[in-house]
Amino acid sequence: MKVAVAGCCHGALDKMYETLELLQRRHNVRPDLLLCCGDFQAVRNEADLRCMAVPAKYRHMQTFYRYYSGEKKAPVLTVFIGGNHEASNHLQELPYGGWVAPNIYYLGYAGVVRFRGVRIGGISGIFKSHDYRKGHFECPPYNQQTIRSAYHVRNIEVFKLKQLKRPIDIFMSHDWPRSIYHYGNKKQLLKMKSFFRQEVESNTLGSPAASELLQHLKPSYWFSAHLHVKFAAFMQHETSSKEELPKATKFLALDKCLPHRDFLQIIDVEHDPNAGDSLEYDAEWIAILKATNSLINVTQSTWNMPEKNGLHAKWDYSVTEEAIKEVLEELNHDLKIPCNFTLTAACYDPSKPQRNVEPVHTINPQTTEFCAQFGLTDINDRIQQAKEEGSGRGECEEEEEEMDSTGSAEEPSEYNTDNSGLSSFNPDEIMLDEEGGDEDLSTCSVDPSPDHPPEFSTSFSDIRIMPDSMAVSSDDAMDSNNEELEKSGGSTQVEEKSSTERSLKRIGGDENGNSGVKKIKRRNQAIYAAEDEDKTD
User: Fold this and answer.
1) What segment(s) does the record annotate as region Disordered (predicted)?
2) Whether residue 485 has pLDDT greater than 60
3) Nearest to 170 by CA among 264, 272, 78, 269
C-alpha cells in the first residue's frame, strides 16, 4: 500500500490534503494512509492556542478546527504523533491515543496500532533530561514551566515501548534519534544546515531516548521531523546471535509543511491484502499497557523504571503469548478501533472570536471508555483526584520551579545530556524566547486568519514518490535539489517526475562517544530559549 509521510504540519491541514489531491491528479497516486511526525497543532479554539508553547505572533488558528467541527473530513486516514508545538491541553485528553476528529487519529504519549496488517508505532514529544524521569503531572491551565514540560518525553513511555517483542514496520518520533546522522549523507546535511555541526561532531544532536528505541525496536522504517530539513539514512543493526537475521532501518526526516517542498513523501509498504481497511488496536501493545499499568505516575517526583539491578523484584514487563491471547478474547478477536470521536470543547467561530477564554482540564469520553474496557488507569482522572484531594503532587497551580534557568536539575539521569534538538541557532525554527521574553500566559494574543488564508496554488509543492530503497547518495552527489532549495528558500513548482533510485550506503564518520555538552558562546541571547531551548519542529 502507499503511505504518505509528512513532516511538521503546523495546523495547515487544508494545504496538506490539497497537496495529496494534487498528487493524485498529476501522478495518479492516491495514498492509503497519511502519517504526520508531530507539530500537528490540533487547535480547536482560542483556549487551545494559549496552550501552545509559541510566542503570540505564531498563534494562528489555521484549519484543523474545520475538521474538528465536521465542516470538513480528512480525505485519507491520518495518524499522527505530538511534537513540541501542540495544543497540549487537547492531546492530553487522549494519553492512550484516540480520534481528534473523524478520520484523524492521535497515537497518544506512545502507542502502536495496525492498518492493513502494517504495525505502526510512535512516541510523542521531544526529549529533555530534566523532565524525563517525572510522571505526567501537568494539566491546564499551564504555567510558564508546564506549558513546555507537558510535551517532554517520559521514561515510562520509552519503557513500555521497549517491552515490545514482535517486529515493528513503521515508527515515528518528532525529534531525531541521536547519532542517526552518521548513517546518512552527513556532509550534505552540514552543507545545508551548518549550524548543526557542533552537535553532530559532539554527538549531541537528537534524542538519546529515541536512539535507544531505534536500537531496541529495529523497525523497517523510522520517520521524524523537528529539525526542518529532509534527511535520509540507512542503519544496519547488529545481530545479537548467529541465528538472528540481519535487520536494517530506513530513516527519513521530513521538512516542515509548506512552502517547503520536502515536507511530504510517498513510500510503498508491504501489507496484508486480506486485512480490512479499518485502523486496529495492536494486541501486544494493549497487553503491555495492562502489564505496566501499576507503574503510572502523575507526580513531579523523579524515578527510574524497573531494571535488573537488584533493587526491583520485577523488571521485565514484556508480555506472554497467553496475555496477548487474553486481549484478543476480550475483544472477541475484533481489533477494530471504534469510531467514537466526541466533541469535548467548543469549536472556533470566526464570527464570534473569544480571545480571553480559559483552558480547562477535560476528561475525554474516549479515554474513559478505553480505560474501562482494558482495566487501565485514566491518567487525567488520577490527576483530577490528586487536585481534589489537595495532595499537592498533582497540582496544576504554578509552583516554585526547582531547576535553574536552563531547566537543568541536580539529579542523576540515565542520560547525561539535555539536548533534544540544537543548542545552536537554527534560523528555520520558532524561538520560544524572542525579544521581550515569554508573554504572560494569562493573555492570549490570537491572530486567527482561517477565513483569509494564503491563496492556494497548484504549483506550490514538490511531491516526491520515494523509491523502494529510500536511497542515500554519496557525499559528493546527494540530491542537488535540496541544495537548490536551501539557496532559493523553497520551490514553487511541482516536479513532474519521481526521485531516481540510488544505492544505499553508510556514509563515513565515526560515532563520537563524547556525551558532554559543550558550552556555546551566545553572542545574541535573544535567539536562544531562556528556559527550555525547545525548538519549533
Assistant:
1) 386-537
2) no
3) 269
- The model carries a pTM of 0.78
* CA atoms of 531 and 440, how far apart (whole Å): 15
d(CA 193, CA 427): 9
Write the Ramachandran bin of 39: left for phi over 0, alpha for psi from -120 to 50, otherwise beta: left
Q: 67 φ, ψ to 5°?
A: -80, -30
Helix (H, G, I), strand (E, B) or coil at 253: strand
d(C-alpha 25, C-alpha 196), whole Å: 38
Phi, psi of 148 (to 5 degrees): -100, -45
d(CA 40, CA 187): 30
334 CB neighbour count, 10 Å cutoff: 10
423's enclosing H/E stretch is: none
pLDDT, tens digit, for every residue of 283-333? Answer: 999 999 999 999 999 999 999 999 988 888 899 999 999 999 999 999 999
In this predicted model, which residue has the larger pLDDT, 426 or 342? 342
What is the percent of the chain where pLDDT is above 90?
Answer: 63
CA angle 152, 156, 162 (to 5 degrees): 115
Q: Which of 162-166, 212-216, 410-414, 424-428 has the lowest mean pLDDT?
A: 410-414
Show Cβ contacts of residue 290 under 8 Å, excluding neighbours closer than 6 positions: 323, 327, 374, 375, 376
Indicate the DSSP class of residue 362.
-
366 Cβ contact partners less than 8 Å away, ≥ 6 residues apart: 93, 94, 98, 99, 340, 341, 342
Give me the mean pLDDT over the 509-531 stretch: 36
What are the DSSP E strand ranges found in 169-320? 170-173, 221-224, 231-237, 247-253, 264-268, 279-281
Q: For residue range 378-388, what is the model confidence (pLDDT) as tens digits?
A: 999 999 998 88
Residue 294 one-letter amino acid: S
Q: Which of 33, 133, 20, 43 is nearest to 447 (CA)?
A: 43
